[in-house]
Amino acid sequence: MSESYLYITIIVVSYFIFRYLTKKNNQSTLSECSICNEVFDEIHILEIDDMPFCKAHAKDYIDSNWEICAQVDCTPDNEKASVELYENKLLDYKKGELGFIKTAYRETLGEIITTLSYYKVKKGS
Ligand SMILES: [Zn+2]
What we know:
Strands 5-7-6 form a 3-stranded antiparallel beta sheet, with helices on one face. Strands 1-2 form a two-stranded antiparallel ribbon. Strands 3-4 form a two-stranded antiparallel sheet. The protein is an alpha+beta fold. The chain is built from 3 helices and 7 strands; from the N terminus they run H-E-E-E-E-H-E-H-E-E. A hairpin with a 6-residue loop joins strand 1 and strand 2. 39% of the residues lie in helices and 35% in strands. The protein has a domain at 65-125. The structure holds zinc ion. Zinc ion (ZN) binds next to helix 2.
């Protein structure tokens, strides 16, 4: 038990050292908007609910009601499904339908499972 605590502490500490070093070396960092996937300098990005948005889409994110329209668990045997989810999102964006993909992690039987949830604007709102 104490060994795993030590392990977690090492991970957390190295994460903060890494963040400190990368912040120090790059004065400006680039971030990708969760809706349009365009890359912006960090000063033009607003982070809401742990997701980066460009200023225009931050407004859309706050003003809209979102609902999950697709959900994919990222496991080695369904890599294709997660790629397709991103492709669908890009196609929808080109059609003028806004959406974003939110990543969530959960632990099942000692394994970390990543779930991608594709949110789109709720119909009729
Ligand atoms: Zn955007």
